[in-house]
Design a protein that fits this description.
By secondary structure, this protein is mostly helical. 72% of the residues lie in helices and 0% in strands. It is elongated, with a radius of gyration of 20 Å.
Length: 145
């Protein structure tokens, strides 16, 4: 076992080192909160489409597949934007737009017209691609949120 001058274990010191940076801690808190909220809410979209809107299960599955395909397709576009500007810029754009798209779900059944359901699902996953790309590939020099 390697012990540094201060007496701490090398592995433990290596694990603790990033958490000494305030920006990194803020990033971890943001990403943890974001992932918790998204994973908590996402199952309810399926229930909402099945029970409230009354879509058939096969259509809901097809929409889920379409949404994931859009996520994959737009990953490259978000990557170009991220390379040109920064991951932080991608998060600054895709995060608030994602929240607005989620908020728009409140209105997909008003007045019993579901025209917004399909575009919103696609938009949500396009934006989610930006968030997952920018949040998952942060370089140490741009860890501030």
């Amino acid at each position: 076992m390697v012990v540094e001058e201060g007496g701490e274990d090398g592995l433990l010191a290596a694990i603790k080192k990033p958490f000494a940076d305030l920006n990194f801690k803020n990033l971890i808190i943001f990403l943890g909160s974001w992932n918790f909220a998204v994973n908590l809410a996402s199952p309810f979209f399926t229930v909402y489409m099945l029970q409230r809107i009354g879509l058939d299960i096969s259509l809901v599955v097809a929409l889920s597949v379409l949404s994931q395909v859009m996520n994959i397709i737009f990953y490259r576009s978000w990557g170009r934007v991220s390379d040109r500007y920064s991951n932080k810029s991608v998060l600054a754009v895709s995060g608030p737009l994602f929240m607005l798209a989620i908020f728009a779900w409140l209105f997909v059944t008003l007045p019993n017209v579901y025209i917004l359901t399909y575009p919103l699902l696609v938009l949500i996953h396009i934006l989610m691609g930006g968030i997952s790309l920018a949040g998952g590939s942060r370089s140490p020099r741009e860890t501030s949120v």
